[in-house]
Every structure is written in C-alpha cells, then in structure tokens.
Amino acid sequence: MATATANRPRRRLTLGRGAAYLGAWAYALMLLLPLYYLVISSFKDNAEIFADPLLPNGSLSLDKFGTAVRDARLDLALLNSAAVTLCALVLVLVLAVPASYALARAKGRTAAVVERIFSLGFLVPTFAALVPTFLLAAETGLFYTRTFVVLFLPATSLPLAVVLLTQFMRTVPDEVEEAARMDGAGNWTILLRIYLPMVVPGIVTVLILSFLAFWNEYLYSLVIIGPDQSQRTLQVAVPTLRSTLSTDFGVLSAGTVFTLLPVYVVYALLQRRMEGALMGGAVKV
Amino acid sequence: MATTTMSASPAPPAPPPKAPRRGAARRGPRTTVMALPALIWYTVFMIGPIGAIFVISVLDWPGMLARVGFAGLDNYRAVLGDQLFWDATRNSAVQLAVAVPTMVAAAFMLGYFLSTKPRGHRVLRVVVFTPALISASAKAMIFWGMFAPNGMLNKVLAGVGLGSLQHAWIADTGTAFGCVIAVDIWAGIGYTATLYAARLDALPDSVHEAAELDGAGHWRRMWRIAFPMVRDYVGVTVMLQFLWTLFTSAQNVLLLTQGGPGNSSTNLSFLVYQKAFVQSDLGYSQAAGVLLFCLGLAGMLLIRRAFRPAY
C-alpha cells in the first residue's frame, strides 16, 4: 500500500469523515437556501411569498424587476455603479503601478518604511474614519457627488495593490532592466514595456479584488453620495425599496438579484482567477 | 452556479525568492518620485482621516454647521461616563467572542475537508465561495426578508412544528443583535474556508500522504497535522476577522436594526456612526472612535503574539 501513493487510496468513511460530510453539506444548504428564497421570491407577490415560502410559483414574469427598476431608478444606479467602479479601477492602476515599480527598485530605508505604511492599511477603522472623510468631502465641495467616491475608493485599495504589485515587480531580474537601459530606455519605457507585461497576474488579482470591493461598497457611498437618484450607486439604491409599513418583498428581492447579477457574470467568466485572487489578497499582512 | 470547472488546486501567487541584487552603484536614475502620487493619495484619504479622528476627539463640535470649540478631555469624560458606551462595548465584546472563534474554527474544519478532495468537492467549493461575492447591502436585504415576521424563517419553523419559536427576529430586543452576528458568521465561514482550502492545497502532497499512512483519524489529522502547518496563516486570518468585526461589521447593524430596538444592537462602530450622523455630536463620536481604534490595535498585537511561531 505504501507504494501506491500516486493515486490516493479511497478512504474509508469513518465517523469523523462522516461528520465532516454532513457539516459541509449542511452549511452549503444554509448558503443556498437564502439565495434560492431570494430568487423565487423575486417572481412572487407578498401573499404568495408568505403562503409558500419555499415553492416557486411557476411564473417567469419580470414584473417585479420592472417595478424595482422604476421605483428606485436602478437603471441610473447601475450606470452610476459602473462609472464609479470603472473610474476607480483605472485610478488604482495609475497610482499603484508606478509606485510599486519605485518601491520594488528602491533599496533605501525610506522605501521600506513607505511599503510598511501601505501594508498597515487594514488598520483603518472604517466607521470612525467616515466622519473626517465626510468633513473632507464637505470642505472640498464634492459632497453629494460620485466624484468624491471615485477619488476616495482607490485609496482604500492602495494597500493591497501596492504591496502585492511590489512583490511581483521584485521578481523581475535586474539584468533585463540593465539591458534596456543600455539601449537608452527611460524609467517609463522600462515600466510599461518590461515590467508591466511581466506582472500581469498581479494586476489581474488587484483588479478582481478591487472590482469586488468597489462594486459592493455601501457605507461611504451611502453617507457621501447621499440619496440623489442621479448620483447614487446600486448598493445604496436597493435598500430604499424597503418601507417601514408595507414592503413589497417580491420587488425588494428582484432589486437585490439585480445588484448581484453583474458580480455573478464576472464570476462566471473569471471563476478560477477569482479564487486565486482572494487567496493572493490575504497572503501578505 | 452551473459551472463546476473550478481548479482543484488554485495556484496561490506565492512570492518567489528575491532575485539577487547588484550594488547600489549600478542603480539607474532615481525613480522614487514615481511613488509620490500614490503616497499623497493614501495620506489624504487614509492617514489624514485617522489623524483627524484624534484631533476632533478633543473638540467641542455639536453639529456639522455649529461653531467649533476646544473641549480638552471633556469628550472622553462624557464617553467613559456614558452607560450607552459601556453597553456598546459589551455588545462588541460579545460579537467578537462569538463570531471570530466560530467563524475560524468552522472555516478551518470546512477548509480542511475541502482540501482532502472529497466526493463533490468541486461543487462544494463553488457554493462555499458564494458569500465572497455578495455585498453587505445585498446580504442584509436577503436576511431582512428571511427574518421578517412573515419571512421564510418563521414559516419554516411553523412548518416543522416549532411554531412556538416564531419571532419578530430583528424587532425583538432579545434576538436583534444575535441576527446581526448570525449574518456575519453565515458569510464569514465560507469566505475564510476558501482561503484555508487554498492554503492547505498548497502544502506538498507528501504531507497528506504521510498523514494517511500514519493511521490517524480525520479529527486528529486535521488538528494535529494540518493545523500546525498553517498556524501562522490562521493567525493572519484571525487578526483580519477580528479587525473586520470590530471596525466594519456594523454595516449589518446599520442596514438591519439601526442599533435597535432600544440600543440592544448598538456596538462600538455603530455608536461612533450614530453619535456623528444622527445625534450630531462629533466630539463624542470621535472620542469613542479613538478608543475603538486603540482597542483594535491592542487586540491585533495580542493576536499576533498568541500566534507567534513557537520556535
């Protein structure tokens, strides 16, 4: 048996393993059940939801989606979310790529300190820092606009982006760069022509994690962009479908599904890379 | 959700060893200036606000448009003499004590199970990854519907003959904060388990083989062989979950309960928010913010120490 290790032998189902199977699938069921409830509810009226919470009503009518989009102007919110996410992603790369190049090449103490400061970004107390950030937005006159959030969000992603890309850029051998310098290439040419193509996996990781963070951001968008329908993002718009007296749960569910769809589309396209990105993002602290 | 092509062992981008470097003499033109824009950005939006928390905490600032005066330590006295602050601290402590250990222990067991590649593990991995995709506001909307008086939870309880357990879950002082914590755990297990599974996948195969030949059972293999090998990584995730729970998870409070009923679900982060944006007492809010920040820092250092390599 010791020699047959190339293919792992099928394990016997012991008590411990049986319990693990049970626990894992019970948790999977607990994850899927709310999502199933959400999706089937988005085709139903309140009466149907309350009467048969777990059975689909067989209808595929998109009425609830239509109502959700009209009531909360989710069409505008979708465009706002897309614009905010895209602009912030571009800005992250524009800021982080040159900075990582500089930090990866620098050998001094200053660079080490700067890198350390970036790596401590997870220590920002989100709720407490909201107050000064709000005051900054008010002071600069960018309060109640998407613009401030577009400028702000990249900063939240910089710790991850700078630390990760610096690690990747360190792996580019000096010799490659020296050869290019002999040919008279400047810093920017070297960065764009030599470094950038070699750190594409790192950039993909940064883009995926930042996309999830920016698209899903709620708190700062809520407080700083505010309730204006022409400015607010999807995450802020959908909770307004609730009402204290009589919420239409079908419409609320449809609106929630609407915000989840873009993320699941990206996931379907980039599934393998996404899991890798999640892993890569939590490696270095 | 139909696709199950997820790679069995996603290659984590482990940082390769540093390439050997030449002396500083061969260094090209200075590039340090290229780091400036990012540094300025980071200073304005991240470091600046943290500094400002400390400054505002000693100011008398009763409202966004009100005149600002100097308060010295008055805000701190007000915070520390306020029963609400201590209630919020207790809630945060309960939340940390329940959510972080549950999440980490369950996630490690699940992650280890996934890394042994049991039957159906590809489907399981896709399902377990799901919570990482869902935003705080979507999560809250999903559970707002589930916990509603006529929502799924009550209907299912009635259906299985436990009708007496029916509840206005998030409108009841006794259960509101529990619901908030449950949503965190629900999502946190999946996210963290994905990280552990990927980390354990990256261990050399010989480890798993040796463990199997060892003849130890599932439980022993998991805690005695696999766990020590990724202990430092578990430490990192414990620290991140701790800080996230303390600093950020109040989004669920904001979306689900608004701190109520009464103040039963107000934790420290939500108190900071509520004092600033509902009661317009910026000095109090930021003094509590400073205490919150110090608590996070102290907790982080403690966790680091606890998970420091034993050798």
Automatic annotation (TrEMBL), chain A:
| Name the record gives this protein | Carbohydrate ABC transporter permease
Q: Where in the cell is it found?
A: Cell membrane
Q: Which Pfam families does the UniProt record give?
A: BPD_transp_1
- Does the entry feature the keyword Repeat, yes or no? no
Lineage runs: Bacteria, Bacillati, Actinomycetota, Actinomycetes, Kitasatosporales
The UniProt keywords, alphabetically, are: Cell membrane, Membrane, Transmembrane, Transmembrane helix, Transport
Q: Where is the ABC transmembrane type-1 domain?
A: 78-270
- Topological category with respect to the lipid bilayer: Multi-pass membrane protein
Family the UniProt entry places it in: Belongs to the binding-protein-dependent transport system permease family.
Indicate the principal place this protein occupies in or around the cell.
membrane
Give the species this sequence originates from: Streptomyces physcomitrii
UniProtKB/TrEMBL annotation, chain B:
List, alphabetically, the Pfam families matched: BPD_transp_1 (PF00528)
Q: What keywords does the record list, in alphabetical order?
A: Cell membrane, Membrane, Transmembrane, Transmembrane helix, Transport
**What membrane topology does the annotation report for this chain?**
Multi-pass membrane protein
Report the principal subcellular site: membrane
Query: Which domain of life does this protein belong to?
Result: Bacteria
InterPro entries registered for this protein in UniProt: MetI-like, MetI-like_sf, UgpAE/MalFG_permease
Q: Where is the composition biased (Basic residues)?
A: 19-28
The residues that cross the membrane are: 36-59, 93-114, 126-147, 167-189, 230-247, 283-303
Can you say where in the cell this protein is located?
Cell membrane
For this protein, the record's SUPFAM superfamilies field holds:
MetI-like
Q: Which family does it belong to?
A: Belongs to the binding-protein-dependent transport system permease family.
What name is this protein filed under? Sugar ABC transporter permease
Q: Which organism is it from?
A: Streptomyces physcomitrii
List the lineage, top down: Bacteria, Bacillati, Actinomycetota, Actinomycetes, Kitasatosporales
